[in-house]
Amino acid sequence: MNETNLEGAGFMTRAIHAGQEPDQAFGALAVPIYQTSTFCFDSVEDGMAKFDGTKDGYVYSRGGNPTRRALELKMAAIEGGEDCVAAGSGMGAISSVLLTLLAAGDHVIVGDCVYGCTNVVIRDVLPKFGIEVTPVDTADLDAVAAAIRPNTKMVYFETPTNPLMKVTDIAGVKRVAGENIRVVVDNTFAPPPVQRPLACGADIVVHSVTKYLNGHGDVIAGVVVGTADDIAQIRNIGVTKVSGAICAPFDAFLIIRGLQTLGMRVERHCANALAVARYLESVPCVKRVLYPGLESSPYHELVKTQMNGLGTGILSFELADNVNGLSGFEAGKKLLNALRLSHIAVSLGDPASLIQHPASMTHHNVSPEVRAEMGITDGLIRFSAGLEDAEDIIADFKQAFATL
User: Which entry of 211, 265, 371, 382 is annotated as an active-site residue?
Assistant: First the structure.
């Protein structure tokens, strides 16, 4: 059976074929699920060679598994990296990167608005290990340049940010950081075919695969993509030893299946989000709509170049401080409770539209002071556009706003 040549292939072709040739044992088209904890050796010598790396093969599923490896090869092809390691969650991936590549005495610049759990690890955990942290608005390249110190080893940020939807110029940050400082981008909110950070100059990309990459709301996982050397370190130290947060074979199988429709799904998510964002701009009690794909967004031009003109499937909006006597917080609760189509849930990238309130949910474990620094107000609401018909999503919002 001939091996598929993907050189020069388009995005959807790579998403479907990369990492998964038909099974050599029985010709199965789908990647087999190698649901095993350990692997047998032909001989003691065979085991020795596989343990010391002089012979390819698998030893123990924490260190490597054929199903997981198919996922890693597919993700490396999708993001344009040399290699990938899959983890048991987005936080397992993020923590493995930070705890592998940073050491006591190092300094890291972090985006001033990141996912709440990421914020806890970077601001609360890293300093315990003697790692200095400086939060910066990475959309401001001058601020990034001003924050760099002789011991700066990493710039870490999300783009677009969660939940304020700020967009950072990835290539601009890498120009400022230079070759000796790793640029790490959380690309969860704008996965390929929207945005490919490595092509923009980033050194490492992380994802919560739980979201768009899997796309069906039934898996928790994460990935890290980068150079072969960096990924080898992160796999051998961070994922398999420090965190032990490996991606299970069955979860890897489900993600591989989800990735095959990624391009079509993401385009629909983005189109629906843009339609909803345009509708929300016309609602009187909505104070502001945060969506980089809007013509009114300060990031609209960057979306055209860095984000392939697609935007993202996520948007946030802020309710007015006084909606018929209700505070933004109370109006937000009433609005969410009145929705019939969108589910109240903290994830994103599912087929169903999801909506949540950051101050009481995803960023609840962030102090009010830090939330204020981030710009996350009590009346801010985050919406993940699903794959439903846009007209139905908007009709649901209209009936919910009528209750305020």
Answer: 211
Q: What is the DSSP letter of 248?
A: P
The answer to whether 319 and 331 are in contact (CB under 8 A) is yes
Options 58, 62, 278, 334, the catalytic residue: 62
* Annotation says 58 is catalytic: no
CATH code for the domain in which residue 75 is found: 3.40.640.10
How many structural domains is the chain composed of? 2
Cα–Cα distance between 402 and 210 in angstroms, integer?
Answer: 33
Residue 156 belongs to some domain of the structure: yes
Same domain, yes or no, for 308 and 180? Answer: no
pTM of the model: 0.93
Same domain, 252 and 208: yes
pLDDT, tens digit, 9 for 90 and up, residues 184-193: 999 999 999 9
Same domain, 244 and 350: no
Residue of 112, 137, 169, 186 with catalytic role: 186
Residues 106, 206, single domain; the answer is yes
Q: Which domain holds residue 27?
A: 11-259
Tokens of 217: 């709301």
**Structure-token pair, residue 218:** 């039934």
Which are the contacts of 45, defined by CB distance < 8 A and separation ≥ 6? none
Q: pLDDT tens for residues 196-239?
A: 999 999 999 999 999 999 999 999 999 999 999 999 999 999 99
Asked whether 84 and 256 are in contact (CB, 8 A), the reply is: no
Torsion of CA 331, 335, 338, 342, to 10 degrees: -160
Q: Is 271 exposed, middle or buried (0-12, 13-18, 19+ CB in 10 A)?
A: middle
The answer to whether 115 and 251 have CB atoms below 8 angstroms apart is no
At residue 9 the predicted structure's pLDDT band, cuts being 50, 70 and 90, is confident
Which of 34, 69, 112, 115 is catalytic? The answer is: 115
Clarify whether 34 is annotated catalytic.
no
Same-domain check for residues 42 and 102: yes
- Dist CA 13 CA 34 (whole Å): 25
Task: Out of 227, 244, 259, pick the residue that ends a domain.
Answer: 259
